[in-house]
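Table 4 source record.
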Amino acid sequence: MITILVTGGAGFIGSAVIRHIINDTDHLVVNIDKLTYAGNLESLVSVSDNDRYSFEQVDICDAQEIQRVFNQYQPDIIMHLAAESHVDRSIDGPGEFIQTNIVGTYNLLEQARGYWDELDAVKKAAFRFHHISTDEVYGDLEGTDDLFTETTPYAPSSPYSASKASSDHLVRSWQRTFGLPTLITNCSNNYGPYHFPEKLIPLVILNALHGKPLPVYGKGNQIRDWLYVEDHARALVLVATTGEIAETYNIGGHNEKQNIDVVKTICDLLEELAPEKPAGVNNYRDLITFVTDRAGHDVRYAIDASKIARELNWKPIETFESGIRQTVEWYLANQAWCQHVQDGSYQQS
């Protein structure tokens, strides 16, 4: 039994990681989350009463509080997921992304280094700092057959991806300069239960159910590799516990889809699963609305996940078809969670 400290554990991916750890392992979990708009403790209701789960409302930029948490809980592994992550928000206000993703990561690295330096030999040798990043740091793929590998040069396009690229560089430099035992993972687009409704898939599902327009950037020809969040959570815990120190692992779903096809697939599933449509809607696809493309919008992301398959024996369980059906079914069955997010009441819970 080890203690895993998860930053950003009330977020979409972080909460999936915590649910996986509590439900499928014997490890202890400490959840650190500032509880910004994207942090939702209702996503952890199913595990929050477990004796192996602890929560601390802490900002990763607060050095004193991070130091207190390290000293109090004595973690064996840090899984760093806390980040500002919405590209549109990074375009409207880059400052928060610089503060959280760069300064916050720097602070966490420094506090982890100080904590690690003081550990006894056994705990020091076992300690790991796992930094969770994104495929967006690699920029845009030009060829139709090209894939991001762990050695693809960084070429971020947005303030969000640039701030994540910066944090990746910090993590690698703390490993090489100070010897801090770090690992990095870069993932493709996640989807699944408990996804905040500003992101494409939950936004489309909920807008369609309310008869609202389904906004699609440009012509909707942007291609993303879609990864079911619970598959990602399994991969992250596997890397954190068994991955090679100083290595990077790309995690992808092997599911390249154009955005417009994702939206049409959701519409077709809703025709089957929610046939009683809002007033005035004959077909969910009729709600699709093309809007002005995002500034600096990358056209294609796709990940080569052969390294993690080869070295750690991980592969996604869900296909896009099975994952997107489960996702739509989850949103239909969890309207209370959705309503609490949409009306803001989740932040008072």
